[in-house]
Amino acid sequence: MINNQSTTPPEDKLKLSFWRRVLKFIGIETTPEHRWHVRLKPRFFILILTGIVIFIISLGGLAAYSTSPSFCRSCHIMEPYYQAWAKSKHSDVACVECHYPPGETKTILWKKFQALSQVAKFITRTYSSKPYAEIEDTSCLRSGCHSTRLLQGRVVSEKSVLFDHKPHLENVRYGRQLRCVSCHSQIVVGKHIEVTWDTCYLCHLKGHKEGRNIEPLGGCQGCHLLPSRTIKVGNITYNHKDFLGQHNIACQSCHQDVIQGEGDVPKERCLTCHNQPEKIDRYKETAFIHDNHVTKHNTACFHCHREIRHGASAAGTKSLAYDCAVCHTDMHDLQRNVYRGIGAKGVPPMPSPMYLANVDCTGCHIMEKKTTNWDLSHSETFTGNKDGCTNCHGKEYIGVLDEA
Questions:
Q1: Domain contains 331
Q2: What is the pLDDT of residues 356-375, one digit of tens each?
Q3: What residue ranges in 116-214 does DSSP mark as E strands?
């Protein structure tokens, strides 16, 4: 007699029953008699369509989130840069608007690939602890941002400095093709992508001071507006126009100590980024280095150069001690103290009005004098004469030096 009962173990029957219920729930029905016969109900197609819609919405949401500053902030190493952006003038501009070029320069897929690659680096911990960004000029000059900046001509900055963007960006400046971020590289909190003034000083002042002579690139008034207001210091009143305009007095007659630093490039700075001997050997190839670092990769000047500082001393604070004092110890101490009006016991300070106005020693000591005293290591000095008085104060000061 043939046994028609199923030989399927009880536990397998339970499993089959469970999966049939699952399939039935999602709209797929099968029958025990016809195991491979499948019938799809409308519920199945509704669920599939719903899943596709949810996937598309999720994908779009993820794509939108990946372009938001919050996504950049999800990596802890980006927090200081996020804070710098959040408190800056660009806080209403998303990171990707600047860090990825606009339009067809780079496709959307390329941008998404970059975002995903950054996520992968973060998850695998293969990211650099010192992130570095390259921002192309097209991002800054795009429509709706700074598209008319090159047409504005000479503008006056917040520091009353004259500047024209067009020649700096369109022309090769002394062998260097500048980019927007050559000058706009500041990323400290609150000043994200603002002007790094030290870059201006490096280009305009490096190599343009020799001894007492200062000849900045473009001249002082190429950048600085001639002050129009009358200035009162102590018991004297003066206006720059009287000296620079009427008498054509050089700025360094009063502002001799406005430049500190050489802006040189120590060779060991190269080792900060490079360890290949063949790259270090090209240290003296200035044209190649500037083209490769500044023009092609937007490297900030001070990744390589030492700083040059530029600024005038506050009234009555000039030290009058120059590099000469490094070798000539205590030279002219008496003259400096008299000029500064250093007081003593029972004697109040009485600084010269010239000192209070920041007139440098070189403002009066203008007469070059050759010397035959071979004990000196230099063959010329500068002494005072009547022209040092009349150049600034006019002919009515003739004879004042003789009375001193």
A1: yes
A2: 888 888 888 888 877 665 45
A3: 154-156, 162-164, 209-210, 213-214
